[in-house]
Amino acid sequence: MKTIDDLDVAGKRVFVRADLNVPLKGDTITDDGRIRAVAPTIAKLLERGAKVVVASHLGRPKGEPDPQFSLAPVAVRLGEILGTPVAFATDTVGDSAKATVAALGDGEVTLLENLRFNAGETSKDDAERGAFADQLAALADLYVGDGFGAVHRKHASVFDLPARLPHAAGLLIEKELGVLKRLTEDVARPYVVVLGGSKVSDKVGVIENLLGKADRILIGGGMMFTFLAAQGHSVGASLLQEDQIPVAQDYLARGKEAGVEFVIPVDTAVAGSFPDLKGGTPAEGFEVVGVEAIPDGKLGLDIGPETARLFAEKLADAATVFWNGPMGVFEHPQFADGTRAVAQALLDSKAFTVVGGGDSAAAVRILGFDENKFGHISTGGGASLEYLEGKTLPGIAALEG
Questions:
Q1: Would you say 329 and 353 are in contact if contact means Cβ atoms under 8 Å apart?
Q2: Which of 12, 13, 34, 298 does the annotation list as catalytic?
Q3: What pTM, to 2 d.p., does this model score?
Q4: Is 33 one of the catalytic residues?
Q5: What is the DSSP code (8-state) at residue 150?
Q6: How wide is the angle at C-alpha 17 spanned by C-alphas 398 and 356, nearest 5°?
Q7: 390 with 209: CB under 8 angstroms?
Q8: Using one digit for the tens of pLDDT, what is the confidence trace for 306-333?
Q9: Active-site residue 382, yes or no?
Q10: According to a count of CB atoms within 10 Å of the terminal CB, is the N or C end of the chain lower?
Q11: What is the Cα gyration radius of the chain?
């Protein structure tokens, strides 16, 4: 795979596919981690005299312009981080994009409007996707893929466009792949994996692949209740995927055979209803109970303090840790303790620690941890998981082609 050092970029229009899919409240960016992650690639290209055309998706618009998903606020923040103005094109391949790109001087940068405002970006029809890729290719001389959070998508700007231009990987994708290789090749042991989030079905592939690689798998988040049900516990009104109970039972049995230790919560924080995340008001009926005593009608929303201590013990001697998925509803202060405890345990260990993107990365920042103290915080939760499942990532395959 070529890198940006292999490209002669001076005076050339370089299309950078970034992942600037940041959370917004109105026009306010609540977490700019993904913008900061791609900035070094853009800055290096600008220093070498490139005319940089940045493109990204944001959210899930339905193939047409939708103001709530505009990248306009991102252009402002990107300019602040780079320390240089970022011109903003109000469309993707229309008159604004063409004019804005044509006006670029060497060492200048523009950001196109949301790629998903064009139905061709995410189309499952090869011809429609290819036609959009042709229009994007007309805006550039070279392609740099650096949107790691999107490389598991077979989208026009990720998969089809690199085939139409000389291409290379950006600094972020180089870094992400290097980290993932440390999780799959010659792994330092003990290797501990912490999985949270809501659904077992979302993690089936990664658990399947890790059964032959990890030494311990710690299960938290909403998915823990399916594992608890697999052990014969009643889980009250907690999130439960009944169709996944046999899958969880199978994993527990196979883990035992393979010498992989599954660590399942022993207590949980419950409430009578889901908490109000906007107002932050306390949830009614809050209590901490053992997993054998979850009351009917109550739902578990976090691991309990005994489980947090247990998890910390299981992480203490780790040499490598991969964490994907929060332990509970961390956005509410009543149910943030489990996620906070796991983050702190990662920092307290001497392990090479990888936070696998998505909600886990957001939790680290929202809960006030210094992200620089972790070994690596990925910008792509879904992409990281699919890599660990052993899947081919379309965006990576395209860059290797």
A1: no
A2: 34
A3: 0.89
A4: no
A5: G
A6: 85
A7: yes
A8: 999 999 999 999 999 999 999 999 999 9
A9: yes
A10: C
A11: 22
